[in-house]
Amino acid sequence: MEIPYTVSPRPDTGLTNGKIAIWLFLASEVMLFGALFATYVMLRVGATEWPAGATYLNIPLAALNTVVLISSSVTMVLAWASLAKNDFGRFRLFMGITILCGFGFLFIKYLEYSEKFHHGYLPSTNTFLAIYFTLTGIHGLHVIGGMVVNGWFWGPGSGLWKRDPTHFTNRVENAGLFWHLVDLVWIFLFPILYLL
Amino acid sequence: MDAHDHAEIDRHVKAALFVFGALLVLTGFTVGAYYLKLPTHLAIALALLIASVKGSLVAAWFMHLLSERKLIYWALILTAVLFVPLLLIPTLGALDAVRLN
Q1: Is residue A171 a part of any domain in this protein?
Q2: So what's the ipTM on this one?
Q3: Which residues on A lie below 8 Å from B14 (Cβ)?
Q4: Do A30 and B79 touch (CB under 8 A)?
Q5: Are B63 and A29 in contact (CB under 8 A)?
Q6: Residue A124 DSSP label
Q7: CA torsion sign, A92 to A71 to A138 to A106?
Q8: Is the CB of residue B34 less than 8 Å away from at least one CB of chain A?
Q9: Using CB atoms, which residue from B40, B78, B86 is nearest to A35?
Q10: What is the pLDDT of residue B67?
Q11: Is B77 on the interface with A (CB under 8 A)?
Q12: Is residue A165 a part of any domain in this protein?
């Protein structure tokens, strides 16, 4: 059975069903990260001592990761815009760069994690590191999830472009909305964990 | 797709590149503010203010919220209404425990 209103908007909502679905999913993601942020605030407010992020964390690497993720958001917009202008070649280029940025982000995160493990800083070391690994770990899983979806549209899933270009463009737009949320969450994680 | 749509997409791309530049500058401000070693309360307020501006730019332009349909706005308003207590109630509870001690 085919899902209705994936190409043209529903007359009553003015939106495709996919667009509504992804926004409802993003709303649930806001609540997930909201609960984690609330946990962070509660732990910090209730702690007798709280280390400065720089005690354990590498600020220049995290700042670099912020730039990488922001750049990937722009290339995601450019990938969608390329499809909207019927230029599949440029879509592949920009989507490819977005995925590479995702790998770049994870590699930098790997360097950060390795440095901490090398020094014996584990989630069990203290409350700060426990919430740091929880927040960045769950965010990292979201980056991986976004890369899997983007990778699908870059490679095997791109066949839809030939059969139904508008449907494919709508799907890429929805994947982009998720990717931007991942960027948005990092924009808050960076100062909260590393700088305050 | 007609020329009008192409022009619209070009405007969108131009705005996205402008927002990209603004996000990079604001990231520089965030890191720069850290090295100023401001008092904790001021540092928290400033960092959250800059993060909020950056987040708003991403939501408004990259996620197209500037020109979205009403239904999406209503879903997000409901999310915000639920998000605020989610953030505040545990914190207020923790503050209460601090006062009791």
Answers
A1: yes
A2: 0.91
A3: none
A4: yes
A5: no
A6: T
A7: positive
A8: yes
A9: B86
A10: 87
A11: no
A12: yes
Length of chain A: 196
Contacts of B43 in chain A (CB under 8 A): 195-196
Count of domains for chain A:
1
Decide if A8 is inside a domain: no
CA–CA separation, B26 and B31 (whole Å): 9
Task: Give me the CATH number covering residue A188.
Answer: 1.20.120.80
Lowest mean pLDDT among A85-89, A160-164, B83-87: B83-87
Token representation of residue B8 = 């619209």
Residue B4's pLDDT is what? 59
Looking at the partner chain, which of B27, B75, B76 has a beta carbon nearest the beta carbon of A66? B27
CB nearest to A187's CB, from B33, B55, B93: B55
**Which among B24, B43, B79 is the nearest to A27, CB-wise?**
B79
Q: List the domain range (segments joined by +) for residue A59.
A: 17-195
Q: Is residue B83 within 8 angstroms of chain A, CB to CB? A: yes
On whether residue A136 sits in a domain, the answer given is: yes
CA dihedral A76, A79, A84, A87 (to 10 degrees): 180
pLDDT tens string, chain B, 101 residues long: the values are 556 588 889 999 999 999 999 999 999 999 998 888 888 889 889 999 999 999 999 999 999 999 889 999 999 999 999 999 988 887 777 667 666 65
Q: What is the mean pLDDT of residues A144-156?
A: 98
Predicted local confidence at residue A60, as pLDDT:
94
Give the count of beta carbons closer than 10 Å to the beta carbon of residue B12.
18
CA B7 to chain A, closest CA, distance in angstroms equals 10
Q: Cα(B76)–Cα(B58) distance, rounded to whole angstroms?
A: 15
What value does the mean pLDDT take over residues A113-121?
Answer: 96
- Choice between A8 and B25, residue whose per-residue pLDDT is larger: B25
Between chains, do B94 and A46 touch, taking CB under 8 Å as contact? Answer: yes
